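Quick one, probably user error.
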């Protein structure tokens, strides 16, 4: 018996998510995390730099979900949420992604309609789960919802995106590239590098180790300290030793990296114990490289200035 071919099924309409944040770097980090999440596909991500720009986009073509920063120039997150609530868009699902931690401000965000509040630096998996809930409140229970892959065994730092975010917030420029790097076979042979020691109140002894080579120290510490780019470039080219001001600023980045370290147990709370410039080989490093519980290495590049390496070990 002849059976006519089934008519083609219409393609699923991509769901639209609008990211509202005055930082283009944060926009890019969030866009990349959402677009690479298979459980959210098909997805169309749009961005706005402030509340006023978001207003225009919502009026032109309302998205399926909106993610808003809380602190923005002009119309901030609170004003944007208030406008949505009283301007005929109260049903638009909204989440807030912010550095704000004060309980009164977070409570205000929820009072104005935020379905969730996620703090920066955020975990990519947490962001994707929260957005899935905005788009479909039953997403976590639905059988088609794909589980976010767990962190690969052997990694020390949970998220490249979070590290990118912290570097941007420290050096204040978007013109850098951060990529994962293969393990440096000569890491233990470096005679000069910035060494960070991390501990955890829940366990004694050394918890993790952070290492910046001198080039990375100059790139992060020099730009954070406001040094002219030409001075940073010349220092890297000459292999100059970073001064106290540069070391201090680079150490600030290592300090905010503590919460990004992988937790070995739910009670772990890593924190920076000390950071110092080692002028000779770190004696314990060969042993730690043999016995480490996790290792992550990154290459930081600024096109006009040079490149350096960042390394983290769980011990």
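Nope, works fine. Designed sequence:
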């Amino acid at each position: 018996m002849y059976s006519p071919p089934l008519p083609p099924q219409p393609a699923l309409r991509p769901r639209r998510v609008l990211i509202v944040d005055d930082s283009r770097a944060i926009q890019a980090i969030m866009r990349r995390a959402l677009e690479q999440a298979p459980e959210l596909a098909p997805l169309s991500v749009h961005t706005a730099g402030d509340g006023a720009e978001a207003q225009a986009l919502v009026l032109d073509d309302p998205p399926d979900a909106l993610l808003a920063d809380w602190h923005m120039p002009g119309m901030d997150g609170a004003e944007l949420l208030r406008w949505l609530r009283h301007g005929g868009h109260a049903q638009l699902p909204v989440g807030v992604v912010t550095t704000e931690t004060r309980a009164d401000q977070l409570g205000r965000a929820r009072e104005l309609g935020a379905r969730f509040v996620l703090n920066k630096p955020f975990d990519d998996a947490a962001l994707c789960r929260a957005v899935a809930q905005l788009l479909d409140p039953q997403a976590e229970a639905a059988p088609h919802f794909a589980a976010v892959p767990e962190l690969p065994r052997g990694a020390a730092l949970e998220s490249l995106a979070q590290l990118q975010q912290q570097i941007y917030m420290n050096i204040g420029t978007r013109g850098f590239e951060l990529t994962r790097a293969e393990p440096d076979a000569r890491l233990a042979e470096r005679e000069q590098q910035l060494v960070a020691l991390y501990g955890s109140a829940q366990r004694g002894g050394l918890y993790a180790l952070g290492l910046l080579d001198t080039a990375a120290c100059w790139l992060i510490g020099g730009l954070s300290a406001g040094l002219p780019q030409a001075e940073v470039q010349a220092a890297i080219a000459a292999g100059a030793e970073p001064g106290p001001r540069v070391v201090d600023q680079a150490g600030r980045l290592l300090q905010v990296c503590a919460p990004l370290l992988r937790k070995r147990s739910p009670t772990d709370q890593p924190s920076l114990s000390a950071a110092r410039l080692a002028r000779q080989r770190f004696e314990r490093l060969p042993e730690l490289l043999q016995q480490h519980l996790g290792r992550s290495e990154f290459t930081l590049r600024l096109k006009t200035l040079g490149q350096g390496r960042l390394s983290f070990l769980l011990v």
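Residues 244-256 form the longest helix (13 residues).
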